Amino acid sequence: MKQLVLASGNAGKLAEFGALFGSLQLQLAAQSDWKVAPCDEPAPSFVENALAKARHAARHTGLPALADDSGLCVAALGGDPGVRSARFAGDAADDAANNAQLLDRLHGVAQRQAHFVCVLVALRRVDDPEPLIAHGWLHGVVASAPLGDGGFGYDPLFVPAGAQATLAQLDAAAKNAISHRGRAAAQMARLLQAFWGVEARAS
After folding, report:
1. Is-contact 134 185, C-beta < 8 A?
2. Does residue 10 register a pLDDT over 90?
């Protein structure tokens, strides 16, 4: 069983990635289990921020690390909130404040196309010269009001292309099958098997 530290203390994210990598012999634990504080995310790109978070977790735990940097990019807002998705309404903002900020910025805007992006990075050690990097995207539109009680982040406002419900209205399995994190995790699972020798769980 390969142990990986998830560069996050978010319980929802840990549960989601635990399910997404459930087919592999992986043991995921949150960096908060080692009292590791969140990493700064000053970079302008998802890849750079994910690398910084993975290195931070590996440095402070001495273990292989997995990090993601994800965000919502809205065309009418020039790609915002983007890498600042978790801090859109301010550094101390919660999901409700960020959702309210997004709705305020889109008030009266008819074209509400947007996409989620997820970049996943896995490192064997802090100075790993060959990080594994995976990407996932999910296109859709921003709803005019939040709907649903599931998920986290902007899930209550995001309607995937071709769907009639927000991500927060889908059950976990349905969401994971189409989400940006689900797509990035599927790509990362293949990389972990091919390059790190991580094995599949016995069925």
Report:
1. yes
2. no
- Which listed residue (68, 69, 80, 155) is catalytic? 69
Amino acid in position 35: K
CB atoms within 10 A of CB 104: 9
Please state the pTM of the whole predicted model: 0.91
Domain of residue 150, CATH code: 3.90.950.10
CB atoms within 10 A of CB 133: 17
Domain extent, residue 160, equals 2-195
Query: pLDDT class for 176, splitting at 50, 70, 90?
Result: confident
Distance from chain centroid for Cα 169: 18
Domain count, the chain: 1
- Which residues are 24's β-sheet partners? 200
The stretch 39-49 carries a mean pLDDT of 92
Q: Determine the Cα–Cα distance for residues 187 and 183; give it in Å rounded to an integer.
A: 6
Q: CB–CB of 91/24 below 8 Å? A: no
Q: Residue 80 catalytic?
A: no
